[in-house]
Write a structure and sequence with these properties.
The structure is a single chain. This protein has 586 residues and is α+β, with helices and mostly antiparallel strands. Helices cover 27% and strands 16% of the residues. It is built from 14 helices and 17 strands. Strands 9, 11, 14, 16 and 17 form a five-stranded antiparallel sheet that branches. The chain has a four-stranded antiparallel sheet with strand order 10-15-12-13. Strands 1-4-5 form a three-stranded antiparallel sheet, with no helix packed on it. It starts with a helix and ends with a strand. Keywords: Copper, Disulfide bond, Metal-binding, Oxidoreductase, Signal, Thioether bond.
């Protein structure tokens, strides 16, 4: 016992010494290259000490062993527990928790970097412009090139951060909270269900694409796009179903193999399959895209997600596209017979399927498309909040260097030297029709006492904000002529079972919601989450926002004082804290 204790004390002393040496070295680094706690030590030194090459924590593992505070964190107090400031990813990474039925390997953290992170620099503006085109249009030769890139990545040693194994783990680490926030080692970095969703995945794909180009020896190589929002791409492309191809993943849903048309708002379990004809499914998908991209996404927070700052609880609320079709297409693709719908259907394993990257290329394309949509309001714009712009991630580049990249670094894809081509927006005018006679003015509704467990459908009347001098029930056109403002239903205090796929639908002015046909206007939105393996017994605490402006106009309810809201459970356990309607201007 004494000898063992002495050995442990010696190891602890060594850890403290290494941390001190690393901290001293870190003082010469640029301010954005945070994280002095031995993450810049070479893997040979780590191997010699017998320490974990994926994680070296300082003595005690508390906040004193974290990264130094950034200037903005010192100013606003985020390093001492207060919320505020950008999310800054530390090099500290912890082992995640996985359920017994998870598929190995169960290690998400990246290899330790042999040197300190470098700050991102834009590529040479004279370099080739990578043009991302849809899988169905690029041809067999081009897809063979993507297959070869995946094969080359898979052939690299697992210790190489550019290997397919490690690239898949990038998503695992950032989606399970394994990465720590700088100055807050008690808090993870979670890039889903917030305003980090789009910029993180853009940065992730940027480096994945450059790694592929480097291995191929083709500087102009661009990722193909799985354009599942247009008829030609609505389904798993045949090339991904070839069992002899590196692009094949055996852990997919076999009933959704080609030529099955995708269901963009798919729900796992009973009632998930809609059994529509291909033509009916395509029309329904168009209406789904219209709701998520046009009428429901009029403000940055409605599309990009809710603000998530240093010290904040994770997952404050996603934007429309992350709910559906992002989450739903992940589940539709994954093997629905598995408890977690691996690979694509769950965060930790989604990056193991080569179709993940063309899937997210389409998500990224939709971000660019959203920016370019000009409606009655004006062209959509991103956040200008510095807490968003200065949030940063750590990713390996094509030279296996660890790079710190910020949100502001990825906002201009022309400066990143890539573009999209060959995909239209056929859903742009697919405005869903209203359904007459589904909201009878009968007996008054029974009052609902929130919070409620959503074991059955719940219908409540929600009062709209009282009219004020500048907002006396103006028409939609009049509102749009003013500043960018939207009337929004907020479903707040949501507590969803983290260990299950959870979904509920939101209907507006449809007391008889069961009479609303598929894709009807009254179905205003859906809450849809993936599982969080390893978090059994916990809940996802978040919120949901639903744009009401165009919807109430279409339902002829623009002048009403109240709105009828019905929440319909589809799958999983969920508790609702309350409902309210607010006006938002961004």
């Amino acid at each position: 016992m004494a000898a063992g204790g002495g050995s442990n004390r010696a190891l602890l002393a060594l850890r403290v010494l290494l941390c001190a040496l690393a901290a001293a070295a870190a003082t010469a680094l640029l301010p954005r290259a945070t994280g002095p706690c031995a993450r810049s030590l070479s893997r040979s030194i780590l191997a010699a000490t017998g320490l974990d090459p994926y994680l070296l924590s300082c003595a005690g593992g508390d906040a004193s062993g974290g990264a130094p505070l950034l200037p903005q964190q010192r100013a606003n107090g985020t390093g001492s527990g207060a919320a505020g400031g950008p999310i800054v990813t530390d090099q500290r990474c912890v082992r995640g928790k996985f359920p017994p039925d998870a598929l190995p390997p169960l290690q998400c953290c990246p290899p330790a970097s042999a040197s300190a992170p470098v700050n991102f620099t834009l590529p040479d503006p004279a370099g080739p412009l990578r043009t991302r085109r849809p899988v169905h249009a690029v041809g067999a030769e081009y897809m063979a090139k993507y297959a070869r890139a995946v094969a080359l990545m898979k052939a690299l040693p697992r210790s190489d951060p550019r290997s397919f194994y490690q690239q898949a783990n990038v998503h695992c680490a950032y989606c399970t909270g394994a990465h720590r926030q700088a100055g807050r080692p008690d808090l993870g970095v979670q890039i889903h269900f917030s305003w980090l969703f789009f910029p993180f995945h853009r940065a992730y794909l940027y480096f994945f694409e450059r790694i592929a180009a480097k291995l191929l020896g083709d500087p102009g190589f661009a990722l193909p796009v799985w354009a599942w929002d247009i008829p030609e791409g609505m389904g798993i492309p045949e090339v991904f179903a070839d069992e002899a191809s590196p692009l094949y993943d055996p852990i997919r849903e076999p009933s959704h193999a080609p030529p099955k048309v995708a269901e963009l708002d798919y729900s796992l379990g009973e009632g998930g399959e809609k059994n529509l004809t291909d033509e009916q499914q395509i029309l329904h998908n168009f209406r789904v895209m219209y709701k998520q991209m046009i009428s429901g996404a009029t403000l940055p927070s409605l599309f990009l997600g809710q603000p998530y700052r240093a010290g904040d609880p994770e997952m404050p609320g996603p934007g429309t596209v992350e709910w559906i079709p992002h989450n739903s297409m992940h589940i539709w693709t994954g093997d629905n017979s598995r408890p977690n719908a691996e690979n694509m259907g769950v965060y930790y394993s989604a990056g193991r399927d080569p179709i993940f990257y063309p899937h997210h290329a389409n998500i990224d394309r939709l971000w660019e498309s959203w920016r370019g949509i000009v409606g009655a309001r004006r062209r959509r714009a991103d956040f200008a909040d510095p807490d968003w712009l200065d949030s940063s991630f750590l990713l390996y580049d094509e030279e296996a260097r660890l790079v710190r990249i910020t949100v502001r670094d990825v906002l201009d894809i022309d400066k990143l030297r890539y573009a999209y081509a060959g995909v239209g927006l056929p859903w742009l005018n697919a405005r869903p029709p209203a359904t007459p006679g589904v909201n009878p003015r009968g007996a008054p509704l029974a009052s609902v006492s929130f919070p409620v467990s959503l074991d059955a459908a719940v219908t409540a009347e929600v009062r709209r904000p009282p009219p004020s001098a500048p907002r006396l029930r103006r028409s939609l056109q009049e509102k749009q002529a003013q500043q960018q403002e939207e009337e929004v239903l907020v479903v707040e205090g949501i507590e969803a079972d983290a260990a299950d796929f959870v979904r509920f639908d939101v209907y507006v002015n449809a007391r008889e919601y069961h009479k609303v046909p598929l894709g009807g206007r009254e179905m205003a939105g859906s809450f849809a989450t993936l599982k969080h393996p390893g978090k059994e017994g916990t809940v996802v605490r978040t919120s949901m926002t639903v744009a009401l402006g165009e919807l109430l106009e279409d339902l002829g309810a623009g002048g009403d004082d109240k709105v009828t809201v019905t929440l319909v459970p589809v799958r999983g356990k969920v508790r609702i804290g309350g409902l309210k309607i607010v006006y938002m201007a961004e």
